[in-house]
Write a structure and sequence with these properties.
Elements: H1 3-43, H2 50-56, H3 59-83, H4 89-94, H5 101-116, H6 125-138, H7 146-165, H8 168-179, H9 185-206, H10 223-229, H11 231-245, H12 257-272, H13 283-290, H14 296-316, H15 323-344, H16 351-367, H17 370-381, H18 386-408
Helix pairs in contact: 1-2, 1-5, 1-6, 1-7, 1-9, 3-5, 3-12, 5-6, 6-7, 7-8, 7-9, 8-9, 8-17, 10-18, 11-15, 11-16, 11-18, 12-14, 13-15, 14-15, 15-16, 16-17, 16-18, 17-18
Keywords: Chloride, Chloride channel, Ion channel, Ion transport, Membrane, Transmembrane, Transmembrane helix, Transport
Pfam families: Voltage_CLC
Protein name: Chloride ion channel protein
């Protein structure tokens, strides 16, 4: 290739990196604003987070809000899928296929609608899809190689995730270890730049607030030993979560997805009358786990109900992420374990720390990426820096035990 062409392609790739980062941040900000608007409309509150809105709302609104939102989203998906199937983003990128921008963008909007109205699904899918769509449109005229295009679109998806949670390193590592599974310097550099830019662009909306607030509590370094002991529990919860959310059986299709998603929403709403932490992606469960507001009964109920409700939405035909529902399930399991230990023994276990440690272990199983799981959990709460090593120990311990179990099974 002539040097002039090489310089032009390098310049175009550099411009594409900047454009991807800026647009991913815009996508993260837009989906965050829309999500919060739908949450406020569904539960009729003005201040506070979703848990405050659900807790203060009338029981009838709690029950019917997710049902109505689910029915509207189901109607949208029915109309959308009648025209064209919506391809899976990661598969489209990996196979170097052309992105169907319209269907992917519409699908992202419907994901925000159903999650904002209380569905037990993750919110990270929508900004990832919208960021990839915007990035693809912005770089369509550039002379990029298929590999460069794959890297840029995967980085757009990871940066979109980083923007909504204000986790620049987590967003970059999501691209590196899950979407591309490559530590090539070109991949690492592009992922870090785009994710950092996206988080900065979305800052006026997210205010760079940590998703979780770590309480000021003392914690012994001996807690690291508990991270190893908790690994079997993380593996069991992670495997159970995967099996429940991927239960064999036909997903609803056609017009039946409208009553199907509405019914899943109604059941979620009814359950929220007793457990207001259940609606939404799982952030509310993480909050009460960190703030040690769960009882043994509520932790056990949430541990059972969160993956089941998530599976019901998926079976009904809804689309959404599984990242935060898995985190929330792991946090509930860790909280339950800590509460039981503190109840039956004289040993005091830090409930907040064990909840996050178990969440990291479960996420390592569900995402098959222990490095991402440990860093993502740490970035969400920003506890003492040494706990990152504890989370990594829990994530790699659970992942290693799971791999050994799978190999011998």
């Amino acid at each position: 290739m002539p040097p002039a062409d090489a310089r032009r392609r390098t310049l175009e790739y550099g411009c594409a990196i900047i454009a991807i980062g800026l647009l991913a941040g815009a996508a993260g900000a837009a989906t965050t604003l829309l999500l919060h608007g739908i949450e406020h409309l569904t539960y009729h509150y003005r201040f506070g987070d979703l848990l405050d809105g659900v807790s203060d709302s009338h029981p009838l609104r709690r029950a019917l809000g997710p049902m109505i939102g689910g029915a509207l989203a189901g109607c949208g998906w029915w109309l959308l899928r009648r025209r064209s199937p919506v391809p899976k983003l990661s598969t489209t990128i990996a196979e170097h296929r052309r992105l169907q921008r319209g269907p992917l963008a519409a699908d992202a909007g419907l994901q925000v609608l159903v999650v904002g109205s209380g569905a037990s699904l993750g919110r990270e899918g929508a900004p990832r899809q919208l960021a990839a769509v915007l990035g693809d449109a912005a770089t369509a005229r550039l002379t990029l190689t298929p590999r460069d295009r794959e890297i840029l679109l995967a980085c757009a998806a990871g940066a979109g995730l980083g923007a909504v949670y204000s986790v620049p390193l987590g967003g970059a590592l999501f691209t590196i270890t899950i979407l591309l599974r490559s530590w090539h310097p070109r991949v690492v550099g592009t992922a870090l730049i785009t994710s950092s830019l996206a988080v900065a662009v979305a800052a006026p909306v997210t205010h760079l607030d940590h998703s979780l607030h770590w309480p000021d509590s003392t914690l012994s370094y001996l807690f690291a030993g508990l991270a190893v002991l908790i690994a079997p529990l993380s593996v069991g919860i992670g495997i159970a979560f995967n099996r429940i959310t991927a239960m064999p059986g036909a997903q609803l299709t056609g017009w039946s997805i409208i009553p199907g998603i509405a019914a899943a929403g109604l059941l979620t709403g009814i359950c929220s009358i007793w457990w207001p932490q259940l609606p939404g992606n799982g952030h509310s469960i993480l909050v009460v786990s960190i703030d040690t507001e769960l009882t043994i009964t509520s932790a056990f109920a949430i541990l059972l109900l969160k993956p089941v409700l998530t599976a019901l939405f998926l079976r009904a035909g809804a689309v959404g992420g599984l990242l935060t529902p898995a985190l929330a399930t792991g946090a509930a399991a860790g909280s339950l374990a800590a509460l039981l230990i503190n109840h039956v023994t004289d040993v005091h276990v830090n409930t907040s720390a064990l909840a996050l440690t178990c969440a990291a272990g479960v996420l390592a199983i569900t995402q098959r990426a222990p490095a991402f799981a440990a860093l993502f959990v740490w970035e969400l709460a920003h506890p003492p820096i040494w706990l990152l090593a504890v989370f990594a120990l829990a994530a790699y311990g659970a992942h290693g035990l799971w791999r050994r179990t799978a190999d011998t099974g």
